[in-house]
Design goal:
Length: 556
């Protein structure tokens, strides 16, 4: 027994003095410019690594990409320039180095294919066969080949395809600074990566960093003293170096790749069912004044007496709004780049009770939910490839209409009141639905949820005389206790996150106005205001909100 006690004491002491390696940290994306986000990460195992990533929304119409141009009649392929000089000279908002190269005086022999605006700058070669291709429609792909990628708008090349369909591979011995690029699984986002070389990263490390920042496929583009990531201080402004270059300052390199965009634009849209028997809409941009109410009509059968609208944006410039008709069918109408479709399209069912809700986990997917007259959850999904599917019964015993949110691709959370008027939740993840989970919080009416990042989610609802908020802080921290954020309402709340650092909640009040309150990451809850203004006398169903500017891993 004495021997066992001594062994346990020694084991405990060894645990205390052993090196304490922190888990890998991936910080939240910061929304920098329209369609452009920036994030950092760090790790201490197996060595100190600092990573820097840019996420580019290729679906955003304001995004364009540029690579280094040819040096014309001068020797070799390009004139060497540092990444900051490239950014400033091309009036870009962010850039990284690409392609290995050799240098003679002020010119570079770029290794592997390089194309700019469909003009060949450097020919393909067998030693650097992995090509990042972005066509004129901003559809990105990674291809292995030695050709010149004729007809492709923008091309850069590297040596290793180290992330293939979510599986990381590659050399795990040679340590250096690294530059890489990746594409998300839905091909919407381009991920640009630099890992500092003070202690360095392997090719395998680089693949895992790309995956952690959201890539599904990725390649190693370059490395060593060349690795550099920059962004502009403001649009068309001077360059700010984001990483710590191995040489102390950015090196002149043979090739760079950058992104051009505009100042970020945050837009919030709200929808109600008005006293005019129509779905009505208004929006604000960048926190400026709200527009006047716009009447977008109703199905020819009219609107259900108490059901309000639901809205979602699956890509910039696109909104899909849903409502329940007097015949208990679901109807939808689309807004594309400022123009509403002329008619409402029926999605059927005939058994809908109360408010629908809708979410999107990427630009190619919409899921709409409602409660049927048997108080069960119903779901219908749309994909770009297959269109609308059939209605599916997800069961349960609902005491209210549902609220749905997607905080990342392949994941949906649905909230509703149960038969005892308590908040409950059902989650879809990894291809299957979980069971209903009872949160136990008393609820009046229909809740509404939003996600500001893939690890930050909020749900709001009315209590007897106030508005309640419950926050999920990620898989480790879990749910906070519900908080009272004040205010009062006469109908269902709506919430959206127009920015990863912002949440806005809306509620109709009996004074005839829609009131809102905003939460900001650095200052917490602001005061309640009636900025959205007079609501045309909403006649039931509350308010719903959406934003196309915060992807939050998706968009709300």
């Amino acid at each position: 027994m004495k021997t066992n006690i001594i062994f346990l004491i020694i084991s405990a002491l060894l645990m205390l003095i052993a090196p304490a390696y922190a888990e890998r940290i991936i910080n939240e994306w910061s929304y920098v410019y329209d369609g452009l986000w920036y994030a950092t990460g760090s790790d201490t195992s197996p060595r100190l690594m600092n990573a820097y990533a840019l996420r580019i929304d290729l679906a955003n119409p304001n995004i364009s990409l540029k690579s280094t141009n040819t040096n014309g009649d001068l020797p070799l392929d390009t004139t060497v320039r540092s990444t900051p000089t490239f950014l400033e000279g091309q009036s870009l908002e962010a850039a990284i180095n690409t392609n290995f190269f050799t240098r003679t005086d002020g010119n570079a022999d770029v290794l592997g294919v390089l194309r700019r605006n469909n003009v060949l700058v450097s020919a393909g070669e067998a030693t650097y066969p992995i090509q990042l291709r972005i066509n004129a429609d901003k559809i990105a792909s990674i291809v292995e080949g030695t050709g010149d990628a004729s007809g492709i708008h923008t091309v850069a090349a590297g040596d290793v395809w180290n992330l293939v369909n979510g599986t990381a591979s590659g050399d795990n011995n040679n340590i250096d600074a690294r530059t890489g690029a990746g594409i998300s699984k839905n091909e919407r986002f381009l991920i640009l990566l630099v890992v500092d070389g003070n202690e360095g990263a392997t090719i395998l490390d680089t693949a895992n960093w790309l995956k952690d920042f959201g890539a599904w496929n990725g390649l190693n583009l370059a490395g060593g003293q060349s690795s550099c990531m920059v962004r502009s201080e403001f649009v068309d402004g001077p360059a700010v170096v984001l990483n710590n270059p191995l040489a102390g300052s950015p090196k002149k390199v043979g090739a760079n790749l950058g992104v051009n965009t505009i100042e970020r634009v945050t837009r919030q849209d709200i929808f109600i069912k008005g006293e005019n028997g129509s779905i009505n809409h208004k929006y604000c941009v960048d926190g400026n004044e709200w527009t006047s109410w716009e009447v977008i009509g109703a199905p020819s059968v009219g609107l259900a007496s108490t059901a309000g609208p639901a809205a979602v944006s699956r890509m910039p410039g696109r909104i899909d709004v849903f409502c329940v008709g007097a015949d208990r069918n679901l109807y939808t109408k689309s807004y594309i780049n400022g123009i509403w479709s002329t008619s409402w399209t029926s999605l059927g069912n005939g058994d809908i009770s109360g408010n629908p809700d809708v979410c999107s986990w990427d630009s190619n997917r919409i899921d709409v939910f409602c409660r049927n007259t048997s108080n069960q959850l119903m779901q219908k999904a749309w994909t770009e490839a297959g269109g609308w599917g059939v209605w599916v019964n997800r069961g349960g015993t609902l005491g209210s209409g549902p609220s749905a949110v997607s905080r990342e691709p392949g994941h949906i959370d649905v909230f509703a009141a149960n038969a005892n008027d308590q908040l409950m939740q059902k989650t879809y993840s990894n291809g299957s639905w979980g069971e209903w989970v009872n949160h136990g919080d008393p609820i009046v009416g229909v809740p509404d949820a939003c996600a500001r990042t893939n690890k930050k989610m909020s749900v709001f609802w009315r209590a007897n005389s106030t508005i309640m908020h419950k926050r999920w802080r990620g898989p480790l921290a879990g749910w906070d206790a519900a908080e009272d954020i004040g205010g009062s309402g006469c109908d269902h709340v709506g919430a959206t996150s127009p920015d990863p650092d912002v949440i806005t909640v809306f509620v109709p009040r009996s004074d005839g106005n829609i009131w809102s309150r905003q939460w900001r990451n650095r200052s917490g809850w602001m005061r309640w205001t009636c900025e959205p203004g007079y609501d045309k006398g909403t006649t039931g169903g509350g308010v719903d909100a959406c934003s196309w500017t915060n992807d939050a891993g998706t968009h709300q």
